[in-house]
Amino acid sequence: MPLALCRVDDRLVHGQVVIGWGRPLAIHLVVLVDDGVRQSEWEQSLYRMAVPQGVDIVFASTAEAVTQLHEWAGDARRGILLTGDLETMAALHDAAPDVIRRINLGGLHHRPPRRERLRYVYLDEAEEQLLKRLATDGVVIAAQDLPTSPPVPLAALLA
Amino acid sequence: MTIEPLVLVAWLGWGTLVGIDLVTVPQGLLSRPIVAASVTGLLFGDPVVGLTVGMTLELYALDVLPIGAARYPDFGIAAVAAAAAAAHSPPAMAPALAGLVGLPMAILGGWSLHRLRRRNAMSVERRLERVAAGDARAIWELQRNGLARDAARSLAVTAIGVVVVVGITHIPWQEFRHLELLSGAAVAGGLVSVLSGAVRSTGDGARRRWLVVGLGLGIFVVLIR
Amino acid sequence: MTPRAQALLRLYGVQASWTYERLSGIGVAHAAAPMLREHFASQPAEVRRAAVARSAEFFNSHPYLAGIAVGAIVKAERDGVPGPVISRFRTALSGPLGAIGDQLIWAGEVPALIGFTLALVPWFGIWAVCMAVILHNVLRFRLTAWGLDLGLREGLQVGAALQRSWLPRRAEDAQRLAAFAIGLAMPLAAWGLLAGLPRGGSFVMLAVVLLASLLAVAPATRSRVTGLRVGLILLTVALIFVGEFA
Hints:
CATH topology of chain A: Fructose Permease
Distance between the termini of chain A: 34 Å
CATH superfamily of chain A: Phosphotransferase system, sorbose subfamily IIB component
Mean pLDDT of chain C: 92
Number of domains of chain A: 1
Largest sheet of chain A: 7 strands, mixed
Oligomer: heterotrimer
Structural class of chain C: mainly alpha
Number of domains of chain C: 2
Structural class of chain A: alpha/beta
Helix content of chain C: over 70%
Low-confidence stretches of chain A: none
Number of helices of chain A: 7
């Protein structure tokens, strides 16, 4: 079963992910790709505590994820792929464009020199260029914090 | 409609308290429509009408999950205005007024909350250097101003509610027929909210089964009464 | 008032200066300040200020569980954990506390209490509402105090302590209870509110509710069809109809 959602969200696992998306999409697998979290046992214990019963969470570095993407995409359980930044998601797409065909921007928050595009999406110049490059590669990109909010396509986001 | 000055003060005070309870302080369930409307009903000597309005709006509010940094309507102050309108109208109009007054007011309240957050951000921006330098006084000022701003927002939305209620009470409802359609429409929208929200937020598995069991028991109780 | 008591009180207003940029970061700093002030009383002002500045960075969690983060940050500062580690810890705590808190409170305890209240109002009237408010506030106070003390005790180990605690299990229990309570409340509330509606009208309404609910859940339409919008549209149609028969 393909990954039901590929989301970029700097808060990683939080309420919008496990309840907002996890419930309506009937998610039973969360794949968290983050080099920092992969090396930190205490951070992993936090995220394990945060996922509901019946949902497995897998931690991977970017390098590990590149080799396992097809395995997760073939998992019988519906899953969410989660990264904390755009660069990681772009690296995963470049490694497996057939798996990462749509990207959901769920939360990229304020930090200099980012500027506000939506109340939950702040981007700097390099990130905007990266998104445009991914879109040119055929990835469908939209910002949407919750499934009940209207999705904002990349073109509208950067307009 | 005439409002005693003391009742008006209590109305504005209760609306303000309900408004700041939603996000700022104390988040103690006062902003739930069933609570906000019931107390308003008591204030106007009609607790049953307050409960009816509160139940109707609660159906809508149960769909709202204030998770992450999502935007959502403010049903608390809306429930205060709707209950006040219902207390000054024929009792059968209570669910209808929950919809007619409550829903637009909830949208207005949600919008005002969004504006408040923008104002808070400007306030932080002005003290950015002091916050970055760990100035506890600046942090205290931000908290105090945030509370004052939300109190002002809540008071303003409640006051708009007062104006709306005064206008509503001039409508000669007795001259219209099929008024039950309005109540039906308001409750139907609420049922769509609560049902779709419950299906979405329970997901699959055990929670879905508990929802079905509760629903079955509720239908059974209704049928035997 | 002790610094802990001050922190507890301030946690009630942890979202007072909520913004889209820092979310509840400022509120967390405000709640932590009395304990940080006490801890750093004998040290240079710069050290305390650096700790306060760290505690004011971006933070997002469930407000009732923010005390866990406040306690854990204060404990980490007391233990002399390096600043960058505390900042990373704070960021890492944010999402998980939001996730578990949203499950326990917003998708669990609150809808459970409200659902049971709606189901009981026909029998107990306003007393059912009073009970819900009292129960919620007692639970909320105990949760806030428990969280603050857990954070103060465990510091950086708070994640493992939370995983061992009652919290994840009760979060699931609360959501099942909420699902049951909402299921129970729906027919009882509809019955109470629509007592005067003619039987034929009830069937039409049921059909409209089921159809619109399907649209509100379906992936293709769920971002456009919401209960609030359906309610407003139905009310507009009803108003036009009622106006015709004035």
